[in-house]
Amino acid sequence: MKVLKDNKEISSFLKLLRKRASGVSYEIQCTVKNILAEVRKKGDTALNKYTHKFDKHDLPIKIKTSDIAKYAKNADKKVIKALELSAKRIWDFHKKQEEKSWSFKKYGVILGQIIMPLERVGIYVPGGKASYPSTVLMNVIPAQVAGVDEIALCVPTPDGETNPYVMAAIEMLGIKEVYRIGGAQAIGAMAYGTESIKKVDKIVGPGNIYVALAKKMVFGEVDIDMIAGPSEILIIADKTANAAFVAADILSQAEHDELASSILITNSEVLAERVIQELNTQLNGLKRKDIARKSLKKFGAIIKTKDIREAINIANEIAPEHLEIMTENPAHIVKMIKNAGAVFLGQWTPEPLGDYSAGPNHTLPTGGTARFSSPLGVYDFIKRTSLLQFDKKGFMILSDAVEAIANIEGLEAHANTIRIRRGGV
Amino acid sequence: MKVLKDNKEISSFLKLLRKRASGVSYEIQCTVKNILAEVRKKGDTALNKYTHKFDKHDLPIKIKTSDIAKYAKNADKKVIKALELSAKRIWDFHKKQEEKSWSFKKYGVILGQIIMPLERVGIYVPGGKASYPSTVLMNVIPAQVAGVDEIALCVPTPDGETNPYVMAAIEMLGIKEVYRIGGAQAIGAMAYGTESIKKVDKIVGPGNIYVALAKKMVFGEVDIDMIAGPSEILIIADKTANAAFVAADILSQAEHDELASSILITNSEVLAERVIQELNTQLNGLKRKDIARKSLKKFGAIIKTKDIREAINIANEIAPEHLEIMTENPAHIVKMIKNAGAVFLGQWTPEPLGDYSAGPNHTLPTGGTARFSSPLGVYDFIKRTSLLQFDKKGFMILSDAVEAIANIEGLEAHANTIRIRRGGV
To answer: Where is NAD(+) bound in this sequence (chains A, B) (predicted)?
Structure first.
């Protein structure tokens, strides 16, 4: 892992970071565009064709509820318990995000904001090697807390193989509408509807480049959550930090994929050196060491700063997805943080707690978008409608103002709605 | 205005509605792409070039604060009062949307959600003929309520002419950073930054097709608000409605532009006929009658239903931007509404009240996106960060669960962050 000290090195590293996930080849763009167009036109026929082609099976599109239970039986009981504990924690946290409709009456006028859940949501869960039950929990639970009535879930089953833990999570949350489809074709099916799948209002969930691009392309037709880029961790640490813990947390990010980014920012030369030693030791034992090594080499760095204030400034500029603060007084530091998806304070809060069980969502803004985006939450599954009800008195109080503004904006018919009610037309 | 009664007619009209705003010519796409690329590369030089070309002036990019005051002096005092009253109402409504950070502690674990305003926001206000002070109020006030520190505002001044009412609204709200630029070049300047304009985190505000497309293209680099389509009103009315009021409200929407859509859905044949008569009478007096007539012809309709229940179902399917309910008991009807940007209840709540002075935002989801989108609000100018702090006890309670899930997800280094802290590595 490279050690950066001077401003030039740091700023060229930051530029590299920003660029790491940009650009999709023209070929992939065309492929996705064609798949979407075909699904829109031919529905299930196209779905079946692409499932046969990419996932190499011809099983029915829908997974029967009885089959979900059957697949889930192959899951280890201990892991089921872990998922149940996690689900409860995630549920409790997201309940705090609930919003209520409100209204108030003043001078003969009722104004308010009606909060309603989205009617129908589609959730994409990746399949194959990267098939994670935690994805099910983190995407389904906020939708359920919001009160979404219809939840459709798509999870591809490459070679017809179904992940028992994903099925266990689905069964646990009571989701009945589950399809064994994936890729751009699944996104198209949820966005446009087919004979077997009803069109949804919003699509959420992670996926590979084909899925991400398809979501981007159907946006507008339906809503989507964020387009997640490669994962990131940034650790601010001082000399009080435990180097072994820091190294372990860095590696947990680096093992995700070669584009993942892991950064330590510290004012302690001693810590930096110890972390490097620890990384070497811990890395060698890992199954995914090749991925982790490549990720660390390209997008990993230890940034040495004069003081913690400078570390905070750099962190705010990067706006990381995950920010761990392992300093003497992390609660003090967090007050100066302006941009981060989630902050993990102190040595007993490794980021993987948040991936699975702590409660907050693991879908977080990446690539610097924490400057303006939020974690996935209940607020992503509701919509608001403004409510206005005037009586005659309330109307009269505002009528002059509305007429005056309509006149200078040159909208005569707007002004007429006022004049005609006053009997002045 | 056509009268639709049978289901086939109605459903083909709904299809027409959905399509009315789709499709941008390849030429416009290229133009916008080129302008953005040039602004990104050449900064102010490109800005000045395009301002000279499209707005036909060479005035400085920034409008001096003293000049804002000078321009504002030309505004009619009565209108200023109207804007002040509106601003106060808008402020009061949006204050109700404020959200507070929260956290809770349980079993040695602190979890929470930190709410922070966006740091820097760019607001686009159209210039020229469609330059509206209400746009300033409706976009600036929610950002100010959210606590956004830096607000930069762009308003083009075609032929160097500055709208005194727009300047009055800007002065009233204390905005100091104002640029006389417009079009795709203004969006590019806010998204990428130039020598005179610092990059923003989010761009909001309406604009023509060039502005809308530029916003879409810079999305991801910065956040944007919704892409507003042409305006819409849908009125549900029964025999108790005042036909003159209904007609006036329809025309206030139809005068916006030829793509605007105005729909009356009623179970009363008598009302339908009276509204048609009223439309003919009122239309003839209007300055913008040609626009209104074209809009009514193409995207206007009176839909005759058997009962109000059927009217509600069609309204929910259309998911209109503005929904007026003029029936005997509108408060009863509104409970059955699932999708609408804003609802206006009863005969004393014409939609223009909401455009200017009532309080709720006039930036509303169009084109059926009320299925999943909300009015512009304070929530558009904040971001959330999850907060996690575990002590050793809290960590130990979850450690088995996290390790178990990490193991079955095949993420060994994730499990290691747990094992190493337990001393088990």
So the answer is: 124, 185, 208
Residues B185 and B40 in one domain: yes
Residue B124 and residue B9 in one domain: no
Residue B158 lies in a domain: yes
Tell me if A295 is assigned to some domain. Answer: yes
Q: Provide the 3-class DSSP secondary structure of residue A86.
A: helix
Residue B369 counted as domain residue: no
Q: Annotated catalytic, A321?
A: yes
* Residue A144 and residue A273 in one domain: no
pLDDT tens by residue, chain A, 425 residues: 899 999 999 999 998 998 886 678 889 999 999 999 999 999 999 999 999 999 999 999 999 999 999 999 999 999 999 999 999 999 999 999 999 999 999 888 999 999 999 999 999 999 877 779 999 999 999 999 999 999 999 999 999 999 999 999 999 999 999 999 999 999 999 999 999 999 999 999 999 999 999 998 998 889 999 878 899 999 999 999 999 999 999 999 999 989 999 999 999 999 999 999 999 999 998 999 999 999 999 999 999 999 999 999 999 999 999 999 999 999 999 999 999 999 999 999 999 999 999 999 999 999 999 999 999 999 999 999 999 999 999 999 999 999 999 999 999 999 999 999 998 54
- Paired tokens of B305: 């239903």
**A389 labeled binding residue:** no
Residue A122 sits in which domain range? 26-224
Boundary residue ending a domain (B178, B201, B224):
B224
- State how far the Cα of B323 lies from the Cα of B317, in Å rounded to an integer: 12
Chain B residues within 8 A of A222 when measuring between CB atoms:
372
CA distance B166 to B237: 36
Q: Is-contact A378 A97, C-beta < 8 A?
A: yes
Q: Are residues B332 and B271 in the same domain?
A: yes
DSSP characters for A299-337? H-EEEE-SSHHHHHHHHHHH--SEEEEESS-HHHHHTT-
- Name the residue among A337, A345, A388 with its Cβ closest to that of B389: A345
Whether residue A182 is found in the same domain as residue A33: yes
> SS3 for A31?
helix
| The total number of structural domains that make up chain A | 3
Distance CA B91, CA A5 (A): 47
Is residue B129 located within the same domain as residue B55? yes
Distances (CA, A) of B271 to A75, A246, B241, B265, B297: 64, 73, 7, 10, 19
Domain stop point among B207, B224, B241: B224
Those residues whose C-beta lies under 8 Å from the C-beta of residue A155, and which sit 6 or more positions away, are: A124, A125, A126, A127, A131, A163, A166, A178, A179, A180, A182
User: Quick one: closest CA in A to B217, which residue?
Assistant: A216
ipTM of the shown complex: 0.96
Closest CA to A65 of A185, A153, A157: A153
Residues B79 and B35 in one domain: yes
- Nearest-Cα distance to chain A for B48, in Å, is 28
Contact B201 A93 (CB under 8 A): no
Q: How many CB pairs under 8 A join A and B?
A: 356
Are A80 and A169 found together in one domain?
yes
User: Residue B337 maps to which CATH number?
Assistant: 3.40.50.1980
At A302, which amino acid appears? I
d(C-alpha A301, C-alpha A40), whole Å: 45
Q: Does residue A375 form part of some domain? A: no
Report the SS3 class of residue A262.
Answer: strand
**How many angstroms separate the CA of residue B304 from the nearest CA in chain A?**
23
